[in-house]
């Protein structure tokens, strides 16, 4: 997956080519290992922290929270734990959205320019001006944005957005990596063979991945329970026993949300 992402992914290949020199591209790729590794470590730590906080009171099992998917745990954790610090919840949510939008914008531009340079420009054989090609690229970027919005609405029906993203990524990256390796290791493959292999690879990968998503298959999660959750029926008793300076039962329950250890 890493090789397909950084080795043959159109988003990153365009960035490599924009550097002008091979050494600059190699240097940028090597330096990117540090922030990428840090990001993966922090993501793993977030998962560990969430499990440590919620393992006795899973918000999904606790019907009082209204959560239905584990994808909602991070926003729920941010809101329930950081609501007392003004502006922090908004800053965290804005960071999540900005990271997602920056990735989507790069992907839109990469797809649009790939379509223009690899399909539209060769097909018209230089009949289109640079201004016209740029306009077509911008139009395609808007079209891809609309497609992304539609896909996001469709993917909201699945249980895990992470699994959906992984399947969507593997849908094309796997066959593209295979084609790249064929080009490196062999010179006997023809255009028709490559295109046919790409189509077959996408079909098989898509059938396998999306069948797993919509078949109802669930991997076994770590042990979770709801025995440590606060009981709304006993809110008066809980509020009177909590060692806080709350002035209302509702605010006590919010400020002391899910503290099974105390």
TrEMBL record:
The keyword Ligase does not apply. The keyword Transport applies. GO terms for molecular function: symporter activity. Keywords: Cell membrane, Ion transport, Membrane, Sodium, Sodium transport, Transmembrane, Transmembrane helix, Transport. It is found in: Cell membrane. It is a multi-pass membrane protein. GO terms for biological process: sodium ion transport. It comes from the Eukaryota. The chain crosses the membrane at residues 28-54, 132-155, 161-186, 193-214. InterPro entries: Na/Glc_symporter_sf (IPR038377), Na/solute_symporter (IPR001734), Sodium:Solute_Symporter_SSF (IPR051163). GO terms for cellular component: plasma membrane. Belongs to the sodium:solute symporter (SSF) (TC 2.A.21) family. This is Sodium-coupled monocarboxylate transporter 1. It comes from Araneus ventricosus (Orbweaver spider).
């Amino acid at each position: 997956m890493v090789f397909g992402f950084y080795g043959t992914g159109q988003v990153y290949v365009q960035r490599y080519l924009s550097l002008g020199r091979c050494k600059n591209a190699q240097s940028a790729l090597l330096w990117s290992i540090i922030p990428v590794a840090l990001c993966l470590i922090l993501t793993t730590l977030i998962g560990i922290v969430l499990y440590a906080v919620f393992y006795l009171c899973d918000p999904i099992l606790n019907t009082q929270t209204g959560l239905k998917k584990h994808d909602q745990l991070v926003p729920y954790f941010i809101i329930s734990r950081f609501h007392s610090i003004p502006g922090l919840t908004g800053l965290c949510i804005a960071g999540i959205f900005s990271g997602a939008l920056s990735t989507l914008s790069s992907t839109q531009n990469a797809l649009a320019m790939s379509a223009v340079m690899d399909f539209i420009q060769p097909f018209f054989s230089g009949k289109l001006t640079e201004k016209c090609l740029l306009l077509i690229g911008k139009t395609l970027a808007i079209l891809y944005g609309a497609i992304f919005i539609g896909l996001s609405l469709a993917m909201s029906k699945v249980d895990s957005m992470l699994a959906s993203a992984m399947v969507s990524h593997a849908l094309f990256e796997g066959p593209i990596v295979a084609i790249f390796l064929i080009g490196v290791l062999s010179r006997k493959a023809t255009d028709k063979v490559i295109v046919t292999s790409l189509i077959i690879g996408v079909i098989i990968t898509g059938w396998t991945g999306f069948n797993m998503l919509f078949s109802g298959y669930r991997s076994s999660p770590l042990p979770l329970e709801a025995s440590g959750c606060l009981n709304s029926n006993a809110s008066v008793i809980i509020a009177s026993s909590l060692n806080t300076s709350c002035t209302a039962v509702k605010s006590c329950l919010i400020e002391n949300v899910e503290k099974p250890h105390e």
